[in-house]
Amino acid sequence: MSAFNGNDGDDQREEEHRPFVKIQGINADDARRRREDLTVSIRKNKREETLLKRRRAVEVEGPGLVQVSENLRTYLDGIRSNDLQRVRDSVEGIRKLLSVERNPPISEVIQSGVVPTLIEYLHSQDEALQYEALWALTNIASGTHDHAQLLVHLDVLPHFKSLLASPVHRVREQACWALGNIAGDCSDMRDRVLSLGVMRDTLNLLVDQSSRLSLIRIATWTMSNLCRGKPPPSFSLVREAIGVAAQLIFSTDKEVLVDALWTLSFLSDGKDNKQRAVADANVCPQLVSLLQSNELQFLVPALRTIGNLMSGDDKTTNRVIEAGALNHLAPLLAHARHGVRKEACWTVSNVLAGTTAQIQAAIEAKLIPPILRCLHEDRFDIRKEAAWCIANAVSGAANAQVVYFVQQQCIETLCGLLDLPDTALLDMTLEALERVLKVGSRIQISQRMQENPFKVKIEDCNGVDKIEKCQDHPNEDIYTKAGEILKNYFEVESDDEDADMAPSADGNQFGFGGGNMPQGGFNFSGFQ
What we know:
By secondary structure, the chain is mainly alpha-helical. The protein has helices at about 10-15, 30, 45-50, 65-80, 85-100, 105-110, 115-120, 125-140, 145-155, 155-165, 170-185, 185-195, 200-205, 215-225, 235-240, 240-250, 255-265, 270-280, 285-290, 295-310, 315-320, 330, 340-350, 355-365, 370-375, 380-395, 400-405, 410-415, 425-445, 455-460, 465-470, 475-490. The N and C termini lie close together (about 10 Å).
């Protein structure tokens, strides 16, 4: 065991308090930043929209506008007929107009005034008529917000919900599809659907052994739409989906697996109670195994969920670490897709915002060198994520870990971060530099050195000038913190440090001749 291991009495008491305030002076919401602060470029807005709503298309090209008008007039006349077959054919004709893949005439159909009649036919005793009307309304719901809003204003939601209990499989499936489209429109529409108790009905379809794969796919997608969106839905309305989604991430069907994974990512996004609830469903081992997938459609939501869980409380973070997640993050930090690298950096930053044991786990998983490569070599948005990793880690590190980070050239890195305009990151960086200087003071006393060796390193990379500039920062916390660092470490030497807090020297000690770091690495054996 190294002589300088941070286990002396006063320092140990200091470390015991650190887990309760993850990073000194920084709120945990800043250290483990909220999910919405990170936009993953893999999932472009257009891709998001295609996942939110789905139209059941059967034809690529539709008729021109003139033909649409003529057809609609014919169908409207037929719908008013007393001939059931003619009514069926007319509703089917309208459905076919709405089922073309490109530019379906949704607005034209709505303007024709036929929608209330289609809603009326949802409760027809004729199954074919009921199904065609439901299909047509499903495709209307796949349109714009105004299209979906019209249906809600016409009070279609209770009709859709009732059809989830239909004895006819294809009707249940189509009703679930329609509700998924409404829920995917916006958070307000989603909440309207949830308020009817549709989540329970959807989950019942998913656990029903008689449900066909096509229904399982649609119901899983609808479940994900019921959980997605900002602001998030009330957790009490969606929490029951966790257990079902946890089972579905073992599905061999790709569509089901993808939507189940996204469901868990939505459910784990937010406060600690959400992450605990998801982790309690024993999803961590399967999520970790999917980090090794070569298919982005699985990797991205699995990594997103892992990152969310890592942003939870210490117990939840430990469960993910114990499942082996850290061992699979290093390759993702070098992934060809920049969105994956960014997500991986965010995940690691949440680990490094945790306890000293969690920081040590990241060190032992050899995550610091690739994080530093991201910081120095990657595009700006990823460099910023990597910067949070280093600032989080050094701010909350134990003494021995601070020395490790210094050996990894993190003083130079931290000084470079002082140039960034991000106030929260700047605040964290000053915290980290203060932590480095505090450990350096203890080394100075232990080694009977003339100067704090880490102070010298900060001076050598123009860190003092940058800290001085922080005194002009408009944020009070920034300029106050910068002033305290300059006062305590660069203007007035801290000669009254408690010698009992300094590390003792023995055969495993390291020296700083002339203020330089030792040639050999720091020995972490026996570190607690």
